[in-house]
UniProtKB/TrEMBL annotation:
PANTHER family: GLYCOLATE OXIDASE SUBUNIT GLCD. Gene3D superfamilies: 3.30.465.10, 3.30.70.2740, Vanillyl-alcohol Oxidase, Chain A, domain 4. It comes from Terrihabitans soli. InterPro entries: FAD-bd_oxidored_4_C, FAD-bd_PCMH, FAD-bd_PCMH-like_sf, FAD-bd_PCMH_sub2, FAD-linked_Oxase-like_C, FAD-linked_OxidoTrans_Type4, Oxid_FAD_bind_N, Vanillyl_alc_oxidase_C-sub2. This is Lactate dehydrogenase. Keywords: FAD, Flavoprotein, Oxidoreductase. Transmembrane segments: none annotated. It holds the Pfam family FAD_binding_4. Residues 48-226 form the FAD-binding PCMH-type domain. One of its GO terms (molecular function) is oxidoreductase activity.
Amino acid sequence: MKMPAPNSAILSRAADIARELRRIVPGEGVVTDPDAKRAFETDGLTAYRQVPLVVVLPETAEQVSAILKYCQNNDIPVVPRGSGTSLSGGAIPLEDGVLLSMTKFNRVLDIDFPNRTATVQPGVTNLAITKAVSDKGFYYAPDPSSQIACSIGGNVAENSGGVHCLKYGLTANNLLGVEMVLMTGEIIRLGGKHLDSEGYDLLGLLTGSEGLLAVVTEVTVRILQSPETARAVLFGFETSEAGGACVAAIIAAGIIPGGMEMMDRPAIHATEAFCNAGYPLDVEALLIVELDGPQGEVDYLIAEVEAIAKHCGAVYIRISQNEAERQLFWLGRKAAFPAVGRLAPDYLCMDGTIPRKQLPFVLSRMKEMSAFYGLEVANVFHAGDGNLHPLILYDGNVPGEFERAESFGADILKLCVQVGGVLTGEHGVGIEKRDLMGEMFNEDDLNHQQRVKCAFDAKHLLNPGKVFPVLHRCAELGRLHVHKGRLPHPELPRF
């Protein structure tokens, strides 16, 4: 994986750039010490790292505006960064770029219970939003496994999901408005507390744009009232394929659980040893299904999914009897990623999405790939919406293992596309999947996406080197194709 070669002219101006940034952000807001900058050299995709040219930590939207305007005028790349939990390398810095850390934007600005909204700064963690409203019986629905650490600004950038996104949607479905700063320094607002915005859906365009279009400085989200009842059920199966078939059968029956997650044997054993959630150790696949709503509805749906699971061959069934037990079931799932970290020195956390009906086939193919590459894989995923998170185990100290792990991961993602899925469900493209974009999009597709980038960032200074495998200049994308001396559509007047 290669990042853009650093611009020597920018490197030679490092001291001048830091001095100008200190005029904008005084005090300790600019970091130039080599050791201090290493804290920002990577994100959740720790296999790759680069030390940034300089780190700046603004505290106001006006400071962000001034920073971006200065960088725009001086052709300096900028990489926005939230909590640095990105698993696709989206926040990895550039050697010749400014790393714009938004961690000081950490205040809850407004809680509006009548309108069921919360307005916060982008550095507020996902879980902190729920904590801010839970005393009134409300919560914020999207709940990534990293919710204790990941920032809401990063969630907007990656369109993050979580275990409850099956029923309540991803970030895009719960985002109402943002304040954002363009690369030119212009501060604009999209949406607000109202449910529908006028005009083009620019808010939808921004969500999931991975820091390539603008820097978010304020976020307004929808908060929901906690359900009257929520209960979780554990189903154990003798094969992962049987568990995958059960997932498809539940959705086919018209039942949309609050959450539906699945783990295979390696993940089950690692998680149980890590947090003692009470998971069965004699099954090959474990399915967690949560039903929520009025008490009568939940009781009825539990009986329905239990019957479906038995029909699909469930050999273990356990229904939570109280809130503490329900939370314990989810504790194991939320702790799965760190738990699997005990199985090997390193692992790659992949992220691809497939049609639910393809779960049995894809899980079977992954077993074959595991044998081919000689690397173990633990599967933890959002089964309800087909969002896979294979964890490929390897040892980075063994020559060639990291390269095999990358190839294994690439084959999994290619398989996702081949069966009708997509390269990413919630982690984003970043640098991890950048060179695989051609598996899903042709050149025309990618060029049209880059035209959107040009509309927001004509100089391609925001987060360059991410998402697009080959980045064209805006002027190149706008050229007319002249064939044998003839312009396209010669009958149209041109001025």
